[in-house]
Specification:
Shape: globular
Strand content: 25-35%
Strand order of the largest sheet: 1-9-14-13-12
Largest sheet: 5 strands, mixed
Low-confidence stretches: none
Distance between the termini: 26 Å
Helix content: 25-40%
Number of strands: 14
Order of helices and strands: EEEHHHEHEHEHEHHEEEEHEHHHEE
Structural class: alpha+beta
Length: 351
């Protein structure tokens, strides 16, 4: 294995259940452009530009103010109900969102309370941009594999509405912005909201038909850590992204990781029946599949109707693929994640 990539192997970890929570409010890309009418008119930007460039037709938002812990708990509660798992059966809870309630305590502390989990349940947050959910799965799986715990609940709840609304206000309110100057804000307009949860368990506790984690690899390129930066800005949220450079650096990192992933799992380009990626947009998806030599017909997308939902994008997409019947027993599924910072994680799941 290359010295640049870290490998992971699992033999006793199953995905017992997955669940998602879709916010009810739909904002189309056309809706966003209507809200951006002042800057579109001033810079003579063509209508339809946003959907054309990203492939994102719409994204969803919560209809009311919601804390990340509340969204995370909604998905967690669904997963526990579907798996018929009682609160006292959860040994570990990880909240894995970009969004957090506050700096202290861990947002997981609030999710724990909302779900009524017992005192013995270990809790903490994992945050790593859009890769946080996959990171949390690996940490939980390692603890199950080692015998420290039997069952874990990984949750994420993202709310991109404040970022999108703040970006609209910024672009409409600053008359000095040029076409070039608004480019770092463009990625903000692809963001959506949603929640996802997964219950991981020791394979002996669940039906043999449940999908199992096989393993994977992870790689990091911190030289690219300034290409997408988000922070608080006057009580709101702000994010600036060099989308072109971020895409190029991310795909270059993923190309190397994919080569090692194949060595570690014994898979090749023909092995996965489905490929689930972090959902960014049309260009990113096409470029990634082309660089890795993957069949684009195996791509299962959600960005066209959900946008980029941060750490929730990949698990939401996987859950939707399972729900739709796009993934079935016997299938190998590749989970390919890329997150700002820059990190790439690839996991294999055997259904």
């Amino acid at each position: 294995m290359s010295a640049f990539f870290q490998a992971m192997h699992f033999s006793r970890v199953a995905i017992e259940e997955m669940a998602i929570e879709l916010p009810p409010e739909v904002w189309t890309s056309a809706d966003l452009e209507r809200r951006l009418a002042p800057v579109y008119e001033r810079l003579k930007l063509p209508a339809g530009r946003l959907e054309l460039m990203t492939g994102i037709r719409e994204r969803r938002f919560w209809m009311h103010d919601i804390r990340p812990s509340e969204a995370s708990a909604l998905a967690g509660k669904k997963a526990m109900a579907a798996a018929r798992v009682a609160p006292d059966e959860i040994d570990l809870l990880i909240h894995a969102s970009v969004c957090r309630d506050r700096l202290e305590p861990a947002t997981a502390a609030y999710v724990h309370g909302l779900l009524g989990l017992p005192q013995r349940t270990q809790i903490f947050d994992i945050s790593n941009a859009c890769l946080g959910f996959l990171n949390a799965i690996v940490v939980a799986a390692a603890m199950i594999e080692s015998g420290q715990i039997q069952r874990a609940l990984v949750c994420t709840g993202e709310n991109g509405k404040p970022l999108v609304e703040g970006t609209i206000d910024k672009l409409n309110g600053d008359n000095t912005l040029t076409r070039a100057a608004i480019k770092p804000y463009f990625a903000n307009l692809t963001i959506g909201a949603g929640a996802a949860a997964a219950i991981l368990a020791r394979d002996s506790l669940v039906a043999a038909t449940k999908p199992k984690l096989v393993g994977g690899v992870v790689a990091t390129d911190s030289a690219a850590n300034r290409l997408c930066e988000g922070d608080a800005d006057g009580g709101g949220l702000a994010m600036r992204t060099d989308s072109e450079k971020l895409m190029d650096a991310g795909i270059a990192l993923a190309e190397g990781a994919w080569s090692d992933f194949k060595c570690e799992t014994g898979w090749d380009e023909s092995s996965p029946a489905r490929v689930i990626t972090h959902q960014v947009g049309t260009r990113h998806s096409a470029a990634l599949f082309e660089r890795l030599g993957l069949d684009r017909s195996k791509d299962w997308r959600s960005f066209d109707r959900l946008g980029n939902v941060g750490s929730a994008s990949l698990p939401m997409t996987l859950a939707l693929a399972i729900e739709s019947g796009a993934v079935s027993g016997g299938d190998k599924v590749a989970l390919l994640g890329i997150g700002s910072g820059l990190s790439s994680m690839m996991l294999g799941v055997q259904f």
